[in-house]
Amino acid sequence: xxYYEFQSPLGAITLISQGQHLIRTEYGRLEDKRQKITQWLExxxxxxxxxxxxxxxxxxxxxxxxxxxxxxxxFTIPYRFYGTSFQQKVWEALATKVPYGSTCSYQDIxxxxxxxxxxxxxxxxxxxxxxxxxxxxxxVIGKNGKLIGYGGGLDKKEYLLALEKNNL
Length: 168
Known about the structure:
Radius of gyration: 15 Å
Low-confidence stretches: none
Shape: globular
Number of helices: 6
Structural class: alpha/beta
Protein backbone atom coordinates (compact mmCIF):
# COMPACT_ATOMS: atom_id res chain seq x y z
CA UNK A 1 0.00 0.00 0.00
CA UNK A 2 1.30 3.40 -1.01
CA TYR A 3 0.41 7.01 -0.43
CA TYR A 4 1.36 10.33 -1.94
CA GLU A 5 0.36 13.87 -1.04
CA PHE A 6 -0.70 15.63 -4.23
CA GLN A 7 -0.59 19.43 -4.05
CA SER A 8 -3.70 20.82 -5.74
CA PRO A 9 -5.27 24.28 -5.95
CA LEU A 10 -7.57 22.98 -3.19
CA GLY A 11 -4.64 22.07 -0.93
CA ALA A 12 -3.10 18.69 -0.26
CA ILE A 13 -4.96 15.58 -1.41
CA THR A 14 -3.68 12.31 0.01
CA LEU A 15 -3.76 9.51 -2.57
CA ILE A 16 -3.78 5.86 -1.46
CA SER A 17 -3.05 2.96 -3.80
CA GLN A 18 -3.10 -0.78 -3.65
CA GLY A 19 -0.41 -1.64 -6.14
CA GLN A 20 -1.20 0.34 -9.28
CA HIS A 21 -4.88 0.87 -8.36
CA LEU A 22 -6.00 4.09 -6.72
CA ILE A 23 -8.34 3.16 -3.87
CA ARG A 24 -8.81 6.40 -1.96
CA THR A 25 -8.34 10.14 -2.08
CA GLU A 26 -8.63 12.28 1.02
CA TYR A 27 -8.56 16.07 1.23
CA GLY A 28 -5.69 17.00 3.53
CA ARG A 29 -2.30 15.60 4.48
CA LEU A 30 -1.82 12.03 5.68
CA GLU A 31 -0.50 13.31 8.99
CA ASP A 32 -3.86 15.05 9.60
CA LYS A 33 -6.06 12.26 8.19
CA ARG A 34 -4.15 9.19 9.38
CA GLN A 35 -6.78 8.00 11.88
CA LYS A 36 -9.63 8.29 9.37
CA ILE A 37 -7.62 6.59 6.62
CA THR A 38 -6.39 3.82 8.96
CA GLN A 39 -9.96 3.08 10.12
CA TRP A 40 -11.12 2.90 6.50
CA LEU A 41 -8.28 0.55 5.51
CA GLU A 42 -8.92 -1.69 8.50
CA UNK A 43 -12.65 -1.82 7.71
CA UNK A 44 -11.79 -3.49 4.39
CA UNK A 45 -9.00 -5.67 5.83
CA UNK A 46 -6.35 -3.69 3.97
CA UNK A 47 -2.89 -3.04 5.34
CA UNK A 48 -2.57 0.25 7.19
CA UNK A 49 1.20 0.17 6.56
CA UNK A 50 1.56 2.94 4.02
CA UNK A 51 4.78 3.65 2.21
CA UNK A 52 5.26 7.09 0.68
CA UNK A 53 6.04 6.79 -3.01
CA UNK A 54 5.32 8.91 -6.05
CA UNK A 55 5.88 6.03 -8.48
CA UNK A 56 2.44 4.32 -8.31
CA UNK A 57 0.76 7.71 -8.74
CA UNK A 58 2.56 9.15 -11.78
CA UNK A 59 -0.49 8.71 -14.03
CA UNK A 60 -2.88 10.00 -11.33
CA UNK A 61 -0.71 13.06 -10.70
CA UNK A 62 -0.47 13.84 -14.43
CA UNK A 63 -4.22 13.48 -14.93
CA UNK A 64 -5.09 15.55 -11.84
CA UNK A 65 -2.63 18.26 -12.93
CA UNK A 66 -4.24 18.27 -16.39
CA UNK A 67 -7.73 18.41 -14.83
CA UNK A 68 -6.86 21.41 -12.66
CA UNK A 69 -5.20 23.12 -15.64
CA UNK A 70 -8.41 22.52 -17.64
CA UNK A 71 -6.65 20.23 -20.13
CA UNK A 72 -8.57 17.07 -19.13
CA UNK A 73 -12.26 16.30 -18.77
CA UNK A 74 -12.13 12.55 -18.06
CA PHE A 75 -9.88 10.24 -16.08
CA THR A 76 -8.44 6.97 -17.35
CA ILE A 77 -6.56 5.73 -14.33
CA PRO A 78 -6.96 2.29 -12.79
CA TYR A 79 -8.94 2.37 -9.56
CA ARG A 80 -10.67 -0.13 -7.32
CA PHE A 81 -13.74 0.42 -5.17
CA TYR A 82 -14.14 -0.87 -1.62
CA GLY A 83 -17.70 -0.60 -0.35
CA THR A 84 -21.06 -2.34 -0.45
CA SER A 85 -22.40 -3.51 -3.80
CA PHE A 86 -24.95 -0.67 -3.73
CA GLN A 87 -22.25 1.92 -2.99
CA GLN A 88 -20.18 0.54 -5.85
CA LYS A 89 -23.17 0.87 -8.21
CA VAL A 90 -23.57 4.50 -7.15
CA TRP A 91 -19.87 5.26 -7.61
CA GLU A 92 -19.83 3.55 -11.00
CA ALA A 93 -22.83 5.67 -12.05
CA LEU A 94 -21.00 8.80 -10.89
CA ALA A 95 -17.93 7.79 -12.89
CA THR A 96 -19.81 6.95 -16.10
CA LYS A 97 -23.14 8.79 -16.23
CA VAL A 98 -22.41 12.36 -15.15
CA PRO A 99 -20.30 14.15 -17.78
CA TYR A 100 -17.74 16.84 -17.09
CA GLY A 101 -19.31 20.25 -16.60
CA SER A 102 -22.77 18.89 -15.87
CA THR A 103 -24.68 18.21 -12.69
CA CYS A 104 -27.40 15.80 -11.67
CA SER A 105 -29.57 15.10 -8.65
CA TYR A 106 -29.43 12.26 -6.15
CA GLN A 107 -32.66 11.07 -7.73
CA ASP A 108 -30.96 10.88 -11.14
CA ILE A 109 -28.22 8.68 -9.67
CA UNK A 110 -30.86 6.51 -7.97
CA UNK A 111 -32.47 5.97 -11.39
CA UNK A 112 -29.09 5.20 -12.99
CA UNK A 113 -28.51 2.47 -10.40
CA UNK A 114 -31.91 0.90 -11.07
CA UNK A 115 -33.16 1.88 -7.61
CA UNK A 116 -35.28 4.99 -8.25
CA UNK A 117 -36.64 5.17 -4.69
CA UNK A 118 -33.23 4.86 -3.01
CA UNK A 119 -32.51 8.60 -3.03
CA UNK A 120 -31.36 8.74 0.61
CA UNK A 121 -29.19 5.65 0.16
CA UNK A 122 -27.63 7.32 -2.88
CA UNK A 123 -26.87 10.36 -0.72
CA UNK A 124 -25.21 8.11 1.85
CA UNK A 125 -23.16 6.32 -0.82
CA UNK A 126 -22.21 9.63 -2.43
CA UNK A 127 -20.96 10.81 0.97
CA UNK A 128 -18.76 7.70 1.25
CA UNK A 129 -17.21 8.03 -2.23
CA UNK A 130 -13.59 7.02 -1.65
CA UNK A 131 -12.18 8.58 -4.84
CA UNK A 132 -13.31 12.21 -4.95
CA UNK A 133 -12.78 14.31 -8.09
CA UNK A 134 -11.92 11.27 -10.24
CA UNK A 135 -15.28 9.74 -9.32
CA UNK A 136 -17.12 13.08 -9.53
CA UNK A 137 -19.50 13.18 -6.56
CA UNK A 138 -19.10 16.98 -6.64
CA UNK A 139 -21.44 16.99 -9.66
CA VAL A 140 -24.40 15.82 -7.59
CA ILE A 141 -26.61 18.65 -6.38
CA GLY A 142 -30.03 18.92 -4.77
CA LYS A 143 -33.15 18.39 -6.86
CA ASN A 144 -33.86 22.11 -6.37
CA GLY A 145 -30.49 22.97 -7.98
CA LYS A 146 -28.81 23.96 -4.71
CA LEU A 147 -25.38 22.77 -3.65
CA ILE A 148 -25.74 20.37 -0.76
CA GLY A 149 -23.17 18.30 1.03
CA TYR A 150 -19.64 17.50 0.01
CA GLY A 151 -17.13 15.60 2.13
CA GLY A 152 -14.37 18.06 1.32
CA GLY A 153 -16.59 21.06 2.09
CA LEU A 154 -18.94 23.12 -0.06
CA ASP A 155 -16.12 25.54 -0.94
CA LYS A 156 -14.30 22.71 -2.74
CA LYS A 157 -17.50 21.57 -4.48
CA GLU A 158 -18.12 25.14 -5.69
CA TYR A 159 -14.53 25.41 -6.92
CA LEU A 160 -14.69 22.13 -8.87
CA LEU A 161 -18.05 22.95 -10.47
CA ALA A 162 -16.83 26.45 -11.44
CA LEU A 163 -13.58 25.01 -12.84
CA GLU A 164 -15.54 22.63 -15.07
CA LYS A 165 -18.16 25.21 -16.08
CA ASN A 166 -15.45 27.71 -17.06
CA ASN A 167 -13.82 25.09 -19.27
CA LEU A 168 -16.89 24.30 -21.40
